[in-house]
UniProtKB/TrEMBL annotation:
Pathway: Pyrimidine metabolism; UMP biosynthesis via de novo pathway; (S)-dihydroorotate from bicarbonate: step 3/3. Residues 49-235 form the Dihydroorotase catalytic domain. It catalyses: (S)-dihydroorotate + H2O = N-carbamoyl-L-aspartate + H(+). It comes from Loigolactobacillus bifermentans DSM 20003. Its cofactor is Zn(2+). Its EC number is 3.5.2.3. Substrate binds at residues 61-63, 93, 277, 308, 322-323. One of its GO terms (cellular component) is cytoplasm. Binds 2 Zn(2+) ions per subunit. Keywords: Hydrolase, Metal-binding, Pyrimidine biosynthesis, Zinc. It comes from the Bacteria. This is Dihydroorotase.
Amino acid sequence: MAYLLKNGQVYLEHQLVTCDIRIQNGKIAALGTDLTPLADETVFDCTAKLVTPGLVDPHVHLRDPGQTDKETIATGSAAAARGGFTTIGAMPNVIPVPDDATKVADMVQRNTENGLVHILQFSSITKNREAGDLVDFQAVKQAGAFAVSNDGSGVQDAATMLKALAGAAEAGLTLAAHVEEDSLKFGGVINAGPKAEELGVPGIINAVETSQLARDIALSEATGAHYHMCHVSTAASVRMIRQAKAAGIPVTAEVTPHHLLLSDEMIPGNDANYKMNPPLRSEADRQALIEGLCDGTIDCIATDHAPHTALEKAKGLCGSPFGITGSETAFDTLYTTFVQGAQPRFTLTQLLNWMTAAPARCFNIDAGTLLPGAAADIAVFDLKTPTTIKADEFASKGHNSPFVGQTVYGQTIATFVSGKLVYRKDDAQK
Ligand SMILES: [Zn+2]
């Protein structure tokens, strides 16, 4: 199919410009004003709509294979498309863990066959994400892995992490670290502090993150290897990353929408839709994350989309698994609060950079820009019409989101992946 997106507010090279985009043969054929529709083109009137490179999310959990009651490659990628994402990075905590060339190649094939968007596959760092042997980084890279992570667990042994950083760097793979010192977990379920005391549940201290981050920054410095920190949650982590960057240590970092939008004080009670790992931290931590993003300490935004079944999440803060969904609520919640809200903190172009080019840069992904000749990965958003987030409209199997019921601006109108229309809100086509 060929499309002409007319008259959109287009995010192009860090600016918003009014222009048309011609999509032919899966690629962006032309950008310009007053492009005349060709005979075979379907015209989308994008007047007053935001047109951006498809969003890039380097951190999602698709649960497939192994836990397909929570999500599948098909439903998880449909959720991404509905959120305006065209490239996602699939974490390796599936069963079996993709930890060798054969299993990575199998995942790459499954992702291609079943995915609605571009799905990039993480290999694990260690065999089966457990203490012990490292994966063969060269082999998994050759099999199609784009990065390595043990997400869901921290790498506990320093020597293992040292060798992993060196090996991943040598293979040209970004190592994305879930940073968590197991010996400091103490069975916590939400942030340690007044809210945990009020609810009578065990707390998770900040040092569970910062103690391991300090080690990892030292190991990044020792090896010279790029280290990417997943889901930064504390003010002290922001401070440490800021210092590391100032010292020239090759560290990058991501933050989730929920850590930017929520603090532990906002947990309404024994509600597992506010339980994730790392946990929602204090308001001071949240403010530090916002500042860290704005001053470049934190490089990008990633959702940590983590679907679970309603049955699992009905078990309260102590009995339920960690994690909330994020693909379908990331852009609109962030836009509504931080760009369009009463006290704006970000510009629209900042937010778009953190969700397109910036994550692509952290992981060396060829995505996140609109240029003639590039794959036509494009999202169209409506910034003017308010909508209420409804769980039964989610494409994800997971309904575990604290944002259900909120009224937001910035719903996705259409998502194109390599020129194919993979999501369309019904009334978008004119
Ligand atoms: Zn994680």
